[in-house]
Amino acid sequence: QVRLVESGGCLVQPGGSLRPSCAASGFTFRYYVMKWYRQGPGKGRELVAGVTIDGGRKNYAESVKGRFTDSRDNVRRMVYLQMNSLKLEGTAVYFCKGEGMGSNTEYWGQGTQVTVSS
Description:
The chain is an all-beta fold and about 120 residues long. The protein contains no helices and eleven strands. The radius of gyration is 14 Å and the shape is globular.
């Protein structure tokens, strides 16, 4: 059974840090590009960050560059999103997504809630 399970979301103050994680199972993780999306209240889902299969290349939305760091551990089958200097607009449900290389296969997690508030 394919599963992507996010965890680590919680309430954090502006300027704070958080590190949500995503645990993968049921598919060949090392052949999947992994991405993080978020969906804020009343907003559409937006791409936040992505990392290639070997972790060698990473891409970030302009709004999070310099503050967020995406990483993966192919042995543990985990993806992490280190979020620093969080802003109020960072309040969202954060989802991880796996995209199979050379295929149309994709998997989504159920999301983890991050709330940035004082």
